[in-house]
């Protein structure tokens, strides 16, 4: 293993240790750890350019998330989600078990668009007030959202599948369709986890009897202001709903870049709901407190990724991971790829894995009679865990909107997410989609 590879793995380990042990915040660790390792490797003079390259790559995402938080913050203030929350409350009747399972189902439905950021924004915006009012453990909401999104991330338009299909010149019928039973099993696993966590929360909290007054109070808690009632715009409900539906439609159809869509949407939302300039400024000021921590972490992640790429640590890590596979294990390379996809997609970006490593694995597997499609399917198994990686920008949006600590969130969710990948792998193996 090369020095660059060793330092790359060590850097990721040090980073994970520092944030999980709460020695440093995720933001500071994302910046300071790679800088320290780059200096140790002799890249000191190039740190600035490498970091700036990384920042440029994440800037569009940061802009999108900033304005998405502002947009949904304004919609929450205006009361757009109050009817939905009240309906949910009526259906779940104060039962934490039903709330948690419902959250997982909602995340699954919203995840059909293949975009993690959209899933998190809609799921958290819709369910946060309900979870908070019932006193459900704060880590459960983001855990359900990210676990379900991890399964649906395998959709051809979700990103990873598109990457591997383009890298290997395959189509959806060869890669995605055979994995559908595994995705169904993964979804059932997420619902099982939701049920287990729901039972624990029901035992801890009991079933709360909610009358109409309490339901109204819970709907009001969706706003971050003490003067929530003054911010409600019930007469504009249908206008706001139509505007949000149009925004989501334009997002799915990719009519404009995501960041531009949310910038325009935020402008319209502010003007329509709060015509006075002073009210608009107050809304921006209020929700900027939610947006700023998320944006700073995304830019910090840009530095982390920029230095990993600029120093070629990512390339060295990829080559070293492939080289450790002994020739005797060649006939089982598809199974090895499936297991290896968990750390691969956690420590590396999807681009680095699917464009850098998977083609190498395919070439090696060909000599053992393993088809490119089988390797492609195996490489997607790790998506059940991938979204917990510190290199995934949308996860910072989820953490920020849910108001939880990144390290605590990883510790709480990681084993359950690994379980998702294992369940999908078992089904794929039993059906022969991935050979032993």
From TrEMBL:
User: Which residue ranges traverse the bilayer?
Assistant: 5-20, 26-45, 57-76, 134-155, 175-195, 236-253, 259-277, 289-309, 413-434
Compartments where found? Membrane
Q: Where is the Citrate transporter-like domain?
A: 15-382
Q: How does it sit in the membrane?
A: Multi-pass membrane protein
Q: What keywords tag this UniProt record?
A: Membrane, Transmembrane, Transmembrane helix, Transport
Q: Which GO terms describe its molecular function?
A: citrate transmembrane transporter activity
Which GO cellular component term is one of those annotated? Answer: membrane
InterPro entries named among the record's database cross-references: Cit_transptr-like_dom (IPR004680), Citrate_transporter (IPR014738)
Main location as per UniProt? membrane
Q: What is the designated name of this protein?
A: Citrate-Mg2+:H+ or citrate-Ca2+:H+ symporter, CitMHS family
Species of origin reads Sporolituus thermophilus DSM 23256
């Amino acid at each position: 293993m090369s020095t660059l590879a060793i330092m790359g793995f060590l850097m990721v380990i040090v980073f994970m240790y520092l944030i999980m042990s709460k020695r440093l915040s995720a933001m500071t660790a994302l910046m300071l750890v790679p800088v320290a390792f780059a200096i140790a490797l002799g890249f000191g003079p190039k740190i600035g350019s490498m970091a700036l390259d990384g920042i440029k790559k994440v800037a569009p995402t940061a802009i999108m998330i900033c304005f998405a938080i502002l947009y949904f913050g304004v919609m929450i203030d205006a009361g757009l989600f109050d009817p939905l929350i009240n309906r949910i409350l009526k259906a779940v009747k104060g039962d934490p078990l039903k709330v948690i399972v419902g959250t997982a189902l909602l995340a699954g439905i919203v995840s059909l668009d293949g975009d993690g950021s959209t899933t998190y924004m809609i799921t958290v915006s819709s369910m946060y007030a309900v979870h908070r009012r019932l006193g459900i453990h704060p880590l459960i909401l983001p855990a359900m959202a990210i676990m379900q999104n991890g399964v649906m991330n395998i959709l051809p338009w979700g990103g990873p599948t598109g990457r591997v299909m383009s890298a290997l010149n395959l189509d959806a019928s060869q890669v995605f369709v055979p994995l559908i039973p595994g995705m169904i099993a993964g979804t059932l696993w997420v619902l099982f986890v939701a049920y287990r966590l729901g039972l624990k929360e029901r035992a801890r909290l009991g079933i709360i009897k909610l009358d109409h007054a309490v339901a109204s109070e819970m709907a009001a808690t969706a706003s971050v202001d003490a003067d929530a009632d003054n911010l409600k715009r019930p007469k504009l409900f249908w206008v706001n709903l139509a505007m949000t539906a149009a925004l989501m439609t334009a997002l799915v159809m990719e009519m404009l870049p995501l960041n531009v869509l949310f910038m325009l949407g935020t402008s319209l939302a502010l003007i329509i709901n709060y015509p006075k300039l002073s009210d608009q400024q107050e809304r921006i000021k209020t929700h900027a407190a939610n947006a700023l921590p998320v944006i700073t972490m995304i830019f910090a992640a840009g530095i982390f990724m920029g230095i990993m790429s600029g120093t070629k640590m990512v390339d060295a890590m990829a080559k070293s991971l492939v080289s450790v596979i002994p020739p005797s294990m060649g006939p089982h390379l598809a199974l090895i790829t499936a297991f290896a996809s968990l750390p691969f997609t956690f420590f590396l970006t999807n681009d680095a894995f699917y464009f850098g490593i998977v083609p190498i694995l395919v070439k090696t597997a060909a000599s053992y009679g393993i088809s490119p499609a089988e390797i492609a399917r195996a490489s997607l198994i790790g998506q059940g865990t991938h979204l917990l990686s510190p290199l995934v920008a949308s996860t910072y949006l989820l953490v920020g909107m849910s108001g939880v600590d990144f390290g605590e969130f990883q510790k709480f969710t990681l084993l359950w997410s690994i379980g998702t990948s294992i369940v999908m792998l078992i089904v794929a193996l039993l059906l022969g989609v991935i050979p032993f």
